[in-house]
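Morning. Coffee machine broken again, so started the prediction first thing and wrote up yesterday's gels while waiting. Chain of 240 residues, entered below exactly as on the submission form.
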Amino acid sequence: MSPDVVKHSLGGKKVLIVYAHQEPRSLNGSLKDVAVAELSQQGCTVTVSDLYAMNFEPRATGKDITGTLSNPDFFNYGVETHKAYEKRSLSSDIIEEQKKLQEADLVIFQFPLYWFSVPAVLKGWMDRVLCQGFAFDFPGSYDDGFLKGKLAILSLTTGGTASMFSKTGVNGDFRYFLWPLQHGTLHFCGFKVLAPQISFGPEMASEEERKRMVPSWAQRLKTVWEEEPIPCSPPWYFGQ
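Came back before lunch.
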């Protein structure tokens, strides 16, 4: 298949990049920019939610419901946002992010690892946007999650080297910290999860190693649509 045919076939693909870094000139900023450039060149429509630039509200509060509460005497965030989603009375910033998600074929989360997890602003995005009724229900989780059919990738930077995130390293295997994010959040909502893109220890890496991080991400994205999802099961994360 010629490159032109490939580009044409990807013309309808939509990508959402949920980006959480304060500094546009950071490695995270460069990884985000090269993803936009490469995927746009493929003919994809790319949307970026730059959470810091948007001043995205991370706190899950009663302000997320614009209508009347079902139980004003005892506030239960999960119950109230579920009902508000059904009544179309969630706050406009949540509705806007849900619309971007609904349209996306691929969602890339670009962030620096904070405490083996995501920065607070990205955690807040997950708390508020992935509400019951929209992303999942009971039944309606994991392989039956409401975002099934969509792909997701975590692209992140770490403060430690690859050897520190190995089974024998001080931090343990990098797959351990991926469990709550990839399995408990993304797979729970139905995403097919692709292998993470981890740029290990850029601050500690040699100049040569740092220079390879951005091009290697761009190179991977050239064939990202052909990748097989990881097997979302405990053995992948924790071994047999």
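The mean pLDDT is 94. Going to sketch it on the whiteboard this afternoon.
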